[in-house]
Amino acid sequence: MVLPETLAVRPFTHPVRGEVVPPGSKSLTNRALLLAALCDGPVTLRGALFSEDTSVMAAALKALGFSVAEDPAHAELRVDGRAGAIPAAKAELFVGLAGTAARFLTALCSAAPSGVFRIDGVPQMRRRPMKGLIDSLRSLGADIRCLGAEGHFPIEVRARGLRRGSVRIDASESSQMLSALLMVSPLAGQGTGEPQAPAGDTAVSVALSASVREPFVEMTMQLMRQFGVPVSHDAEGFHIPRRHYHIEGRTFTVEPDATAASYFLALPFAAGGAVMVRGLGRSDPAGGPLQGDLRFASVLESAGMTIRAGGDGMRAESPPSSPRRGGNWDFREFSDTFLTLAAVAPLLDGPTRISGIAHTRKQETDRIVAMATELRKILGESSVLTTHDSLEISPVPVEEVRRRAARQPEGSFAIETYGDHRVAMSFAILGSHPLFGDDNPWIRIRNPSCCAKTFPNFFDELDRLREDSAKNP
């Protein structure tokens, strides 16, 4: 549906009942797009996400000369891999605010045997961390020229391949930089004039100069293994063999997005009832979940939610008699979901402290400031405290929130989203709570269309669940 500039969120008037299938994982889709382009032939991605971020990645691959066939109706993408070569001799790529695309494309262009490629994004993307990746690629021989501030976009890559060898990287500000380096490392030595190393020999060894958030790196390694490159990890670092990418059956299935699922898993705290999130938590063939953000479910459990996981997904329930406890949680390893907990924290009993989130100040917006600012509108200044690395929310009596809402224009809080999809979706879940005991909206979301970045039909799905719950109380 076409969304207005400001969207009033209608509360649930009945406990939530129903199920939802989140869109495909953005992180998996963009990683699989890159690996498919590096494969030695065509690859079909099933269950792929179609959103702004993945469209940016697909459009960039097309600009680089790859054949990318898109079938949104069936959630499929088909990429004709070129075994490490980039068909186009030159290209100008625009990545908007897509951090995964920015880092992955920088690495891809640097690893190509030849070509001249310029990459840029929106002003906020020019401020996002890139230096660690640029420095490590340069250490392997890449010619990357920063056309503005050093270590930031816009950049020009004059491709000449990457050397084999050892390299250190500081990916403390974004694990995407390490993932990008790992995925292109099997190409090292291609086009550099070095003697061809036997397949299976180590192409690149990567050591860390600072700690990194592990779940998304583990996701990257698991995908590389599924695409035929057995990357290994030990105390010395990561070791990537020289090997062509290839996936059995030439298909890869993208599982539903765990971060997108977090909003619906938290919904019973706002509306009561239970919701089933289908397809969530499928494992890779080697065992273990692909998405680290599934850890958010354990946070909900410790706060009082009942979570049941099975082969068909996860069921979240908040029975009327169950406690809704505040607490102290470290979100460093699954920080994209911290906004979901922060938004429902006003509904919990006691303070909620969220730490390990300093790096989120350099994402789509300063997410700590964004959440604190908007929550203070609802709870008051003294109820929301921040440090560089944390956010603490103390609930206030419901009567106070009602009085504060009644004093607002239109009798509801206008939530700024700062162009950040996760701010919009998180507060939409809070707005689903029937503050006044009816369907009178008490939260309005400004620029709800920003959700197109990762979940274009989020508000459609929320509306559908609301209507289904009212029909089947």
What's this entry about, in short?
The chain has two domains: 6-23 and 255-471, UDP-n-acetylglucosamine1-carboxyvinyl-transferase, Chain; 26-237, Enolpyruvate transferase domain (UDP-n-acetylglucosamine1-carboxyvinyl-transferase, Chain, Alpha-beta prism), CATH 3.65.10.10.
Structure explained in plain terms:
- By secondary structure, the chain is α/β, with parallel strands linked by helices.
- It has helices at residues 26-38, 52-63, 99-111, 123-127, 131-139, 175-184, 214-226, 258-271, 296-303, 338-344, 367-379, 398-406, 421-431, 458-471; strands at residues 6-8, 19-20, 42-46, 68-71, 76-80, 90-94, 116-120, 144-146, 155-158, 165-169, 202-208, 232-234, 237-241, 251-253, 273-278, 306-310, 313-318, 328-330, 352-355, 384-386, 390-393, 413-415, 443-446.
- The strands form six sheets. It has a four-stranded mixed beta sheet. A four-stranded mixed beta sheet has the order 4-5-3-14, with helices on one face. Strands 6-7-9-8 form a four-stranded mixed beta sheet.
- β10 (165-169), α6 (175-184) and β11 form a beta-alpha-beta unit.
- The chain is elongated.
- The relative contact order is 0.14.
